[in-house]
């Protein structure tokens, strides 16, 4: 009963530890979302696109004109001295709304580009985090194995001095330790690179401490393969960006069509008139309302503008089809990696346990002088290999899940 309670306690302790580790990763994602320079670039570009909307909704600037008659023109009312004119152009009905819709869809596309950058960043943070975990575990496993081989080296020296085994056993252990120390040096160098990469993604001090779990969680995907594909088709940010660009082109085609209609001009002219010789006027100015319009005579230009957008729409349609095919291919590969990681975890758990039991038996046999030391080294290599492969499988599985979630636009 006591043993049972201890196992339950260890289980809940492990669950608590994994939950804390996932919380640490979520905090790193928050820091990356706040600090990453590339993400700030895309956000500011999105904010800049919002400023386009007031521009396209505004009328053209009014036109003001001033005229001075060097030689006054005599009229019945008196000589014309000065003339002021003011006018305002108005586009054809519906043009403003169409331009506004183009800008709105372009803004939405910019926002999806920002979201895509954020999703890519989060996936990079997660992948680097999992690589950090694996590399750290590889260092721990290698150090532990060097310690074990050092103990065996002492045992081999004792047996050599007693004349029980050949000095070759000592040399074999020494060579094995040298190989592991070289591998350890490479792993430490790689750890440094990964830590700098991770902190740069977060845009924090490159020497900042990074917390990784003692044991990586092995969560499964909580949705079916078809549900993942449906989510990609509906919510993937790259596809949404293309869709908003397509909608913008539809409104842009409407703008091009409306440009083939006349624009209106409404204005006034103010003429200052002096007193004539007979002082007949009794007034010194006249105001004339004016109305004008532009006549789009050269129709080929406007037809070409519409046709240009038609070709762009066709290009976007094909771009979306191509992107869907690419994403489906990438997803299939990611799903394969997820399943492969899950299978490898199960396999290497079994292989590690068998190798560990085998090594224990070989160690006992060697201690009693009944076994060649080369068999121990061979089994020790397998034990290290299965330990590393198990941790790599756990890391690869979570990286595959993170990538699938990225493709789903979450």
Please characterize this protein's 3D structure.
- The longest helix has 69 residues, at 299-367.
- Residues 1-16 have low confidence and may be disordered.
- The protein has 410 residues and is of the alpha+beta class.
- The protein has a single domain (2-35, 91-261, 296-407), classed as Outer membrane efflux proteins (OEP).
- The protein has helices at residues 2-35, 37-50, 52-56, 95-161, 168-202, 225-235, 237-258, 299-367, 373-407; strands spanning 63-74, 79-90, 264-273, 285-293.
- Strands 1-2-3-4 form a 4-stranded antiparallel β-sheet, with no helix packed on it.
Write the layout of secondary structure elements.
Layout: H1 2-35, H2 37-50, H3 52-56, E1 63-74, E2 79-90, H4 95-161, H5 168-202, H6 225-235, H7 237-258, E3 264-273, E4 285-293, H8 299-367, H9 373-407
Antiparallel strand pairs: 1-2, 2-3, 3-4
């Amino acid at each position: 009963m006591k043993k049972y309670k201890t196992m339950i306690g260890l289980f809940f302790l492990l669950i608590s530890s994994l939950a804390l580790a996932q919380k640490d990763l979520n905090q790193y994602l928050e820091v990356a979302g706040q600090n990453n320079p590339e993400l700030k670039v895309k956000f500011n570009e999105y904010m800049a696109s919002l400023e386009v909307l007031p521009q396209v909704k505004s009328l053209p600037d009014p036109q003001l004109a001033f005229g001075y008659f060097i030689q006054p023109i005599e009229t019945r009312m008196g000589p014309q001295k000065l003339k002021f004119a003011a006018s305002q152009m108005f586009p054809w009905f519906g043009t403003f709304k169409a331009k506004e819709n183009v800008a709105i869809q372009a803004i939405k596309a910019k926002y999806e580009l920002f979201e895509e950058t954020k999703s890519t960043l989060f996936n990079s943070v997660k992948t680097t985090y999992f690589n950090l975990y694996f590399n750290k575990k590889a260092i721990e496993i290698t150090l532990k194995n060097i310690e074990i081989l050092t103990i065996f080296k002492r045992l081999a020296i004792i047996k050599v001095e007693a004349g029980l085994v050949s000095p070759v056993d000592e040399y074999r252990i020494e060579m094995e330790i040298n190989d592991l120390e070289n591998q350890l040096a490479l792993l430490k160098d790689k750890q440094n690179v990964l830590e700098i990469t991770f902190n740069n993604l977060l845009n924090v001090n490159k020497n900042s401490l990074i917390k990784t779990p003692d044991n990586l969680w092995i969560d499964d995907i909580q949705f079916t393969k078809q549900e993942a594909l449906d989510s990609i088709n509906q919510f993937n940010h790259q596809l949404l960006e293309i869709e908003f660009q397509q909608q913008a082109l539809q409104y842009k085609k409407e703008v091009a069509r409306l440009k083939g209609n006349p624009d209106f001009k409404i204005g006034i002219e103010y003429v200052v008139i002096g007193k004539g010789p007979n002082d007949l006027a009794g007034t010194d100015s006249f105001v004339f309302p004016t109305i004008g319009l532009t006549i789009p005579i050269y129709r080929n230009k406007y037809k070409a503008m519409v046709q240009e957008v038609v070709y762009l729409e066709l290009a976007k349609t094909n771009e979306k089809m191509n992107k869907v095919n690419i994403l489906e291919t990438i997803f299939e590969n990611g799903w394969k990696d997820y399943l492969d990681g899950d299978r490898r975890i199960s396999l290497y758990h079994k292989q590690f346990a068998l190798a560990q039991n085998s090594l224990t038996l070989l160690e006992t046999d060697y201690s009693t002088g009944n076994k060649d030391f080369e068999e121990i080294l061979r089994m020790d290599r397998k034990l290290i290999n299965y330990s590393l492969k198990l941790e790599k499988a756990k890391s690869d599985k979570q990286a595959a899940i993170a990538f699938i979630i990225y493709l789903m636009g979450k």
